[in-house]
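hey m, so remember when u said the tokens were messed up on ur end? i reran from scratch. heres the input so u can diff it against urs
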Amino acid sequence: LIIAVFITSCSSWLDVNDDPNNPKELRLNQMLPGIYSGASFYFGYNYMSLGYITAVYSHHLTTRESIDQYGVKGSDMENNWSGLYAGPVRDLELLLAEAEATENTIYAGIAKINKAYVFSQMVDIWGDIPYTEISAGIDGNFNPAFDDDQAIYTSLLALLEDAIADLSTNITETNN
């Protein structure tokens, strides 16, 4: 009887099933550092980032050295492509969805500006890319349609206008 009471009462004083390192809800202020870190990793100039790879190819256009001398392979671009969609792009979509669901216009504006930046860089590098169906992988569709680069740029400009409106709305609300 004592053992039965002890086992059934454990849940009230010993809560070992809640992992403090894996929160169950998104915290908007904790998502941005990971997004910035991921974007800077892929767009920066560290080894095998897009900055490094495009510098190698640009350098190759002006010299007679072999691209192989730098150790760059075609799969490195593919790794950056999939890494961007699996990392910063996915996280920006989550941040934007959560910010809009909680009506937090500051984080919605920040997410839209960063989304415009990340996608403008991706379009500059690859041209036509998946944009309108980017959440398709999350939904189970792993073959999203590629959008025209001009249409993406037009959409990004509209996204920036929305971001400015989000940030302006919040400023006027806090000043009144």
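this time it looks ok to me. The two ends are 64 Å apart (CA to CA). if urs says something different then somethings off w ur setup not the seq
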